[in-house]
């Protein structure tokens, strides 16, 4: 036989290869069965870490590109700032107009209160009841303020229970009557 040629499977080479493959399978199987979950968690953690790093790199790249665009086109930045300033000015004007309306309404209310106090004082000086006058003045003010609004009258409601209802008497109720418990020793064996 020649040295380079191999004969049938009688030599030590192929037998070691199959035995080594079985040993490798047994070793890998035992490692996976012992540390499989830990290895899976480590792979997931590495994956999430890679995702986070790639996102942060992409954000940095976008920030560089954004700053480069702003440096290249200052007229766009100026137009954007002018539009922002105009919008702020409009909002401030609307707020000032609302504040003026509110102040005017408060002045009118103060004036109305002052008039009511004067009318109450005058009626007291004349010896009349000022509470009845006050109610009349308030009704006049409300009707003057809401001239277009129609006053709503309350419908006649019947009372929920009769006038002589007493919850502790046990009368007049349905199944909800209260009775005191028995006194004395408890029953037991």
From TrEMBL:
Gene Ontology BP term (one): endoplasmic reticulum unfolded protein response
Compartments where located: Cytoplasm; Endoplasmic reticulum membrane
Topology term for the membrane: Single-pass membrane protein
Transmembrane regions: 32-50
Ranges of biased composition (kind: Gly residues): 161-175
Region annotation (Disordered) ranges: 129-189
Biased composition (Low complexity): 140-149
GO cellular component: Derlin-1 retrotranslocation complex; Derlin-1-VIMP complex
Main localization (coarse): cytoplasm
Any coiled-coil regions, as ranges: 88-119
Pfam families membership: Selenoprotein_S
Keywords associated with the record: Coiled coil, Cytoplasm, Endoplasmic reticulum, Membrane, Selenocysteine, Transmembrane, Transmembrane helix
PANTHER family given in the database record: SELENOPROTEIN S
Family of this protein: Belongs to the selenoprotein S family.
Protein name listed in UniProt: SELS protein
Organism whose genome encodes this protein: Brachypodius melanocephalos
